[in-house]
């Protein structure tokens, strides 16, 4: 049975579907020139809405193939749910096929000339690099490459950190509220362009913004204890940061912050030696902002301030 919804199917697409097989193509699917769709006896193939199958791809649902929503399949990809048996007792062509289900989750991108073999499962949001051979399972939101395809990197949000020093200076826990006010319009620019915006500062500072719309991370987020507002040695602590000297409780927080958030970009108001050292060790990009520099230039929809290296 071949059931095609309101899909865009090129005239050169070839269907070879056995009368005992089921092939379902949902609304909104695009199948481009010279694609071949096969379903042998008892086979099953389902292609969900929003999926695009590019030129010259072969999909074999003789076992069972399920392709999720909004999947991008590049040219000359092979997806098969069957493979030949190859024992030595007789010629391979006489041994028949072994069937194994293939599952491809939603929002997957499969690069050109890749092969997805019988039994493979590709998790939601995964990316398969061009020329890869998927023999085993690929975890969701990962990037896989090679033969066999293995995870080489995570797929993640673009993250930008707006950093205010979590130390309490001059016995004023909300000293940096004006900096947050400067950062908020900049954060909106980033958020509108698809970035995840993360603000860093003390909990006392966050309390100044009861309806804050972005993620806020404080030392308490990682169970790090900082001196309170009445601490008398705030100046010596601050000098440690300015001179890149160790400051145990703060160094632990910065390490946890960068390792867990893993940002692409960090904006920092006050110079923080611990933060600079950690970012450099992780090879991140960062910028030290001055309030008078944030009235900066706009490029590609992002408000970009003066950078510091």
Architecture overview:
- With 309 residues, the chain is of the alpha/beta class.
- The chain is built from 5 helices and 29 strands.
- The protein has helices at residues 177-192, 203-206, 234-242, 248-261, 273-282; strands spanning 2-4, 8-9, 14-17, 22-25, 30-31, 36-39, 44-47, 52-53, 58-60, 64-67, 72-73, 78-80, 82-84, 97-99, 102-104, 109-110, 115-116, 121-122, 127-128, 133-134, 142-145, 150-154, 159-163, 196-200, 215-217, 265-268, 285-288, 297-299, 302-304.
- It has an 8-stranded mixed beta sheet, with no helix packed on it. Strands 1-4-7-10-15-18 form a 6-stranded parallel beta sheet, with no helix packed on it. The protein has a 6-stranded parallel beta sheet with strand order 3-6-9-12-17-20, with no helix packed on it.
- It is elongated.
Helix content: 10-25%
Spans of at least 5 consecutive residues with low confidence:
288-309
* Corresponding CATH architecture of the largest domain: 3 Solenoid
Shape: elongated
What number is the mean pLDDT? 86
Strand content: 25-35%
Can you summarize the main beta sheet? 8 strands, mixed
Distance between the termini: 63 Å
Tally the structural domains. 2
> Which fold name corresponds to the CATH topology of the largest domain?
UDP N-Acetylglucosamine Acyltransferase, domain 1
Number of helices: 5
Structural class: alpha/beta
């Amino acid at each position: 049975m071949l059931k095609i919804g309101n899909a865009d199917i090129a005239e050169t697409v070839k269907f070879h579907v056995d009368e005992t097989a089921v092939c379902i193509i949902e609304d909104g699917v695009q199948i481009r020139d010279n694609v071949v769709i096969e379903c042998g006896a008892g086979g099953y193939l389902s292609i969900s809405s929003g999926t695009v199958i590019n030129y010259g791809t072969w999909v074999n649902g003789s076992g069972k193939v399920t392709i999720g929503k909004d999947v991008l399949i590049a040219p000359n990809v092979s997806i098969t749910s069957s493979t030949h048996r190859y024992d030595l007792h007789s010629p391979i062509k006489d041994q028949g096929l072994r069937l194994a289900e293939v599952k491809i989750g939603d929002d997957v991108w499969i690069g050109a000339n890749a092969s997805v073999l019988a039994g493979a499962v590709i998790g939601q949001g995964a990316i398969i690099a061009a020329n890869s051979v998927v023999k085993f399972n690929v975890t969701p939101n990962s990037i896989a490459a090679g033969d066999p395809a293995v995870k080489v990197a995570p797929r993640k949000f673009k993250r930008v950190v707006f950093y205010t020093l979590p130390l309490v200076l001059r016995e004023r826990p909300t000293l940096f509220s004006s900096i947050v006010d400067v950062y908020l319009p900049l954060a909106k620019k980033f958020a509108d362009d698809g970035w995840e915006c993360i603000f860093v500062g003390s909990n006392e500072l966050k309390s100044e913004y009861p309806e804050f719309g972005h993620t806020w991370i404080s030392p308490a987020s990682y169970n790090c204890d900082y001196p309170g507002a009445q601490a008398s040695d705030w100046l010596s602590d601050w000098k440690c940061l300015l001179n890149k000297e160790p400051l145990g409780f703060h160094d632990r927080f910065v390490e946890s912050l960068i390792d867990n958030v893993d940002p692409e970009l960090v904006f920092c108001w006050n110079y923080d030696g611990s933060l600079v050292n950690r970012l450099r060790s992780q090879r991140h990009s960062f910028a030290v902002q001055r309030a008078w520099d944030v009235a900066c230039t706009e490029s590609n929809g992002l408000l970009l301030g003066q950078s510091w290296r």
